[in-house]
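ok trying again, last paste got cut off:
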Amino acid sequence: MQRNQEHSQNKSDSEEFSPARIAYQLLAAEDEGRVCKDIPESACNHQTTNFVTHVVSLAMTKSADGLINPKLVLSWILTHLGAPAYFVGLLVPIREAGALLPQLFIAGFLRSLPRRKFAWALGSLIQGLSALGMALAAFTLEGKALGLALVSLLALLALARSLCSVSYKDVLGKTVSKSRRGTATGTASSLASGLVILFALLLASGWVDKLTLVTLGLALAGLLWLLATWLFLTLAEEAGATEGGANPFTVAREHLSYLVTDRQLFWFIVTRGLLMATALAPPYMVALAATDTESGFAGLGWLVLASSLAALLSSRFWGRLADRSSRKVLMLCGACAGVALLLTALARQSGVVNLPGVLPLLLFGLMIAYEGVRLGRSTHLVDMANAERRAAYTALSNTVIGLLLVLGGLFSVVANAYGEQVVLIIFAMMSGLAVLAGYQLNEAQEEAREEVGDKA
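nice, full thing came through this time. structure:
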């Protein structure tokens, strides 16, 4: 026993000045040193390399997500190459619902895997191949054939993303300490945002033909996913429990019972469902100022840039704050989103929404809140659930949100009947209600601090 401890200590000392150790010290190490929370004791010895592996892998996949951007990049390719308009309308529903709805059933399969990093790697591999297929389709096809190819590959990519989504939080919870998880995901988001911003600026510069550039962007996204696959497999993940790997429909039925038996999970899903307003609102905000096709496209370009800048400037802040209180992050973001959406509605009413800088500033404010919601909900779910239920809670909440996102298409009917301003007011009300729902949540990180205090 003593020899093993000495070996671990010697190994730690030898890695003191390694690149991974230096990066970890800069990004995450504070006065708590090597204290490990809610992870196996053996995983503590790999805390440094695992943390950096998570940051780099997640930065690659988030960058790839930004490069394929169905709302802008894929829709522009379809429009530019003459695909029927209905293919453009299918992109976002397929992307969102395909990534979320299967998760409740995938969770049952994951329970049979002692090391779930392999499931994440498989999902990343499929996404990479799908993105490379999209690049090939954009280079060789046009019209209806291109539409069929891109939509089919996007559906495959979305299904693979659902596999990554369910498995990632479980792997994160087993390999990175509770007080470091928000920092890891926040740092990755910031790094990815920088790359996407450079891509957006290059698109706007006109130095390279847009079709050539977006096609190369799809290919780069594919390569990033493939590199992330290889890197993620190097994680030192301890074998986990495999009980419950039964028929997926049986497991799904059992998981649904958590909505009744776990009050905290119920309020978390309610809060997250109301905060969907931060994801659904941007297209309606842009539509307020889209008086013609050219300005509308320009508005979407500003949306992508504003989103990337918001992530770059806020993700690390939200991540660190989420490590202290993810509950407060969700409540604060609900309040910020409500203010941004109400100001947008007022700007539309007063006629100032088309003044230079007004809409981009409002979009930036909403995207700040959106980034906080993404990091806050992820950190809260990982920290509120124990190791046995983490994958099930992730799959259940994502499946419910996937269903709600499908129903979110009804807001377009409201917009057609009453205008985008009414929809934005509804979204502002949802954000306000999210603050009240978030108040019902417990402080998920408080338990970890109490545990450390007890040990001390």
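cool. Residues 1-17, 22-27, 291-300 have pLDDT under 50 and may be disordered. Residues 44-243 form a domain with the Growth Hormone; Chain: A; fold (CATH 1.20.1250.20).
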